[in-house]
Amino acid sequence: MFELIFLGTSASAPSVHRGLSAHIVSFRDYRILIDCGEGTQRQILRSGIGFRRLNRILITHGHLDHILGLAGLLSTFARWEAVEELQIWGSAWALERIHDLLFGVVLRGARPPLQIELIPIEPGLLMEDDHFQLSAFPVEHRGAGTFGFVFEQKARRPFLPQRATELGVPAGPIRRELVRGHNVKLSDGTVIEPEQVLGPPRRGTRLVHIGDCGSTEGLLEHSAGADGLVIEATYLESEEELARKFGHLTARQAAEFAKQADVGHMYLTHISRRYREHEIRKEAQAIFPNVTVARDFDRFKIRRDTDSPGRG
Question: What is the pTM of this model?
């Protein structure tokens, strides 16, 4: 299960009710910030989630409405000592702008208050552990170096308690060893192997995050069957020409893609100030019913094969 927190859901400029792009994905000990629009540090404070362990930032692309908040966030980290190191992942072009912002403007030759690592993104696997993997894929938007991200729990084999009882495996630590893939020996000397008490593999939860996007071409292979899809809906179909001109999607286009990809639920973000929320929802739901127009500070739990989740 992943927790998805929207901190900023506006397009290009903030509105009264929406801040600029910033979202957090949490899984076990990971808290990963995706984009850091202006004002993100205040949104983090207002959300109540705090700054601790928020030491990995993924940048979808280098436009200013997605990176300017890094300056304030670094300043806050310097004063509060919330993290000891900070990894910022982005395209080469995005990292060049971020380097200028942080080292040329914020620090201006001063020693960084924490270890800052700027990590170039290439398509493919970015990080993984025994339970989770994160990968990146290219997205078409204005300029070079735009990426989407796939958060995926690794497949696991469920423990079969009834089968374990039949084999005489007592409850407690010995069962945990079997779940970890280790053979165990019972008090009578019988050796039980994990294969005897584990079911067939079940795929884990998949959450796909696509930020600014001018076309869904080539994205299907990365999004198909996802339990949750975060994607932009900057325009309505009535202004499709504007969407094409500025490299964005309409709510209808996003919904058509979600339907084609057969995702569990779609979360629309990057909403233009020119529209009301219900207009975006109505256009999308006419094609794909499982849709939420995200608001700032919305929280969702993304689980495998779930129906439409409520705000939490």
Answer: 0.88
CATH of the domain at 109: 3.60.15.10
- In this prediction, the residues of the chain whose per-residue pLDDT falls under 50 are 306-312
Structural contact between residues 307 and 7, judged by C-beta atoms closer than 8 angstroms: no
Q: Are 17 and 294 in contact (CB under 8 A)?
A: no
| Tally of domains in the chain | 2
Q: Are both 79 and 209 inside the same structural domain?
A: yes
> Per the structure block, which two tokens stand in for 298?
């919305």
Q: Judging by beta carbons within 10 Å of its beta carbon (0-12, 13-18, 19+), is residue 240 exposed, middle or buried? A: middle
What Å distances lie between residue 100 and 104, 108, 120, CA to CA? 5, 9, 15
Two tokens, residue 146: 């735009």
pLDDT of 305 reads: 66
Structure tokens at 304: 């495998």
Q: Which two three-digit tokens encode residue 302?
A: 């993304």
Among residues 176, 175, 179, the alpha carbon closest in space to that of 165 is found at 175
**How many helices and strands, by DSSP H and E, does the chain display?**
9, 16
Which tens digit of pLDDT belongs to each residue from 232-244? 999 999 999 999 9
Handedness of CA 228, 230, 231, 233 (dihedral sign): positive
Q: Could you say which of 196, 212, 246 is where a domain stops?
A: 196
Tens of pLDDT along 28-71? 999 999 999 999 999 999 999 988 889 999 999 999 999 999 99
Which of these is catalytic: 35, 65, 212, 227?
65
Which strands sit side by side in the sheet containing 299-302, from one edge to the other? 115-120, 85-90, 56-58, 30-34, 22-27, 2-8, 299-302
100 is catalytic: no
Domain extent, residue 245, equals: 2-156+201-302
